[in-house]
Fold this sequence. Notes:
With 405 residues, this protein is an alpha+beta fold. It has ten helices and 16 strands. A hairpin with a 2-residue loop joins strand 10 (247-258) and strand 11. Helix 6 packs across helix 7 (199-212) and helix 9 (288-329) runs antiparallel to helix 10. The radius of gyration is 32 Å and the shape is elongated.
Amino acid sequence: xxxxxxxxxxxxxxxxxxxxxxxxxxxxxxxxxxxxxxxxxxxxxxxxxxxxxxxxxxxxxxxxxxxxxxxxxxxxxxxxxxxxxxxxxxxxxxxxxxxxxxxxxxxxxxxxxxxxxxxxxxxxxxxxxxxxxxxxxxxxxxxxxxxxxxxxxxxxxxxxxxxxxxxxxxxxxxxxxxxxxxxxxxxxxxxxxxxxxxxxxxxxxxxxxxxxxxxxxxxxxxxxxxxxxxxxxxxxxxxxxxxxxxxxxxxxxxxxxxxxxxxxxxxxxxxxxxxxxxxxxxxxxxxxxxxxxxxxxxxxxxxxxxxxxxxxxxxxxxxxxxxxxxxxxxxxxxxxxxxxxxxxxxxxxxxxxxxxxxxxxxxxxxxxxxxxxxxxxxxxxxxxxxxxxxxxxxxxxxxxxxxxx
Length: 405
């Protein structure tokens, strides 16, 4: 299942859980009013602080925290930018110490999503030192990912305005009330609601909204079953502005189960709304593929070179064995052994050796009493074998010689 199939549903879920007022003030349930309000808000900024714990076989093995900010412009598919960081601490073993030198580390990055260009920009601002890789080539460098091609399979769905889907949301919600609110009280300017959100029912709600819009369902039956078996019901509270019905603060808690492991998360999000700010494309950004090449290029190129050289040597080693079989079959002569056609000839081995590194053509010379062959290694030197039993790097090109120089 591709990640992109969750883009629009996630946007809707965000709009729902992240609050909103309504044009349809007669609807009693705040979920509808909040949906309309968020959809009409000119711009928003949310800040989330969360803590999480991981339990394995009942034992708390990891703990950490998350902080993120998210700012969006107006529109059905707004551009957005934000930052994200998390800390993770291992409590029961020394795996992190072996990798990072300590059992706790922090990762942070910035991101910008320019939907009109279908580009997402990322910048890692903090990452623990890893001895095997040069992380300096990543940290604080902008790179981008073209998400347009990845989203092509669901392009028709993504082209549907989220506002169009939201227009069917109230009717779908009446059939699948995935999120329920209970009023807890009020302050001078805010209502306070407790809420419960069932992830599986919410996925059914999204499917129904798409169906009402004349589109295929987004989540399959197996998706519903998978989510239902792992995710707990989300619970929390919302503080909602009485005048605008936009959420101001949300607190929530949820859990995820898998085999004998369990993740629990507690979070608090604050929201602000205001004028739309234009999001600028980061200067000097490189493609993600280029960034990976810069980080891992040296080790990858080294591995490729070693593999190519090994293939070259293997082919020339085979040539030595076949040349001796040729010698015996031809009644003690090597003459013609460098040919590329025939039985026990070695010309094809020499060609394969040269092709392994791509450093030009191989060389092979023979006489009735001796032969020699060589090909160029990735480092520019030559690897040579001959009828005397020599096999190794040679000082110079073989040329017309019939023994290795």
